[in-house]
Design goal:
- The mean pLDDT is 81.
- The protein is mostly helical.
- It is built from eleven helices and no strands.
């Protein structure tokens, strides 16, 4: 499989840009450590799969054409981001510091990470607009090629998010022992989730 430099550079720019997944992975690393940050990166990457499937199956076209379908998914995403913001302020969300790394905590990290990306209809439309640009007009198997490019995008997402999260986890010891710093971070992350909810709410198809 040959990949153009343009595709790789564009993918890295898109993946590395601060967004919901990056913020969530950073929060997981700061509050729960390196293992949780890698789980969060995996969960956010897993949350991309339905959007890729929608793009391949043509379902993204329905989201683009139907205001009702797009609005339903969008406002579900807005509601979940606001819920994440509220939970973070209540010390039960993304920045909830847990000393025990149990299965229930890990499951919570994965569920939140997956839902954050699944409930963003802009991702499906993004893949429809983004990937075809790097598929040649005479490509004999365009869907297979699109699936290959999607796999590369997912791999880049996981690696970049994991790097973000592990770096945040390395700073964890300097953060969790300082209540004032944690309070400031909690408010900042809650505000970030709230701002992302507003941005998604005003997004157009």
């Amino acid at each position: 499989m040959q990949l153009s430099l343009g595709f790789l550079l564009t993918t890295l720019v898109v993946v590395a840009s601060p967004g919901t997944g990056v913020i969530y992975t950073l929060a997981a690393g700061l509050s729960r450590g390196a293992r949780a940050s890698v789980l969060a990166a995996f969960a956010c990457t897993l949350g991309i799969v339905p959007h890729i499937a929608a793009a391949l199956l043509g379902l993204a076209a329905i989201l683009h054409a139907s205001a009702v379908a797009f609005g339903a998914v969008k406002y579900a995403g807005v509601a979940y981001l606001l819920y994440m913001s509220w939970r973070t302020l209540q010390e039960h969300g993304a920045l909830n510091v847990e000393r025990r790394d149990d299965r229930r905590s890990a499951l919570r990290v994965v569920v939140d990470g997956v839902l954050i990306n699944i409930l963003n209809p802009k991702l499906s439309i993004f893949f429809v607009a983004f990937l075809p640009q790097f598929i040649a007009a005479d490509e004999p198997a365009p869907l297979a090629r699109m699936a290959e490019l999607s796999g590369v995008f997912m791999l880049a997402t996981f690696v970049v998010f994991a790097i973000y999260g592990v770096f945040a986890a390395a700073m964890r010891a300097h953060v969790v022992s300082r209540p004032r710093v944690m309070a400031w971070l909690r408010r900042s992350f809650a505000a970030a989730f709230g701002a992302l909810a507003v941005r998604l709410a005003v997004a157009e198809r």
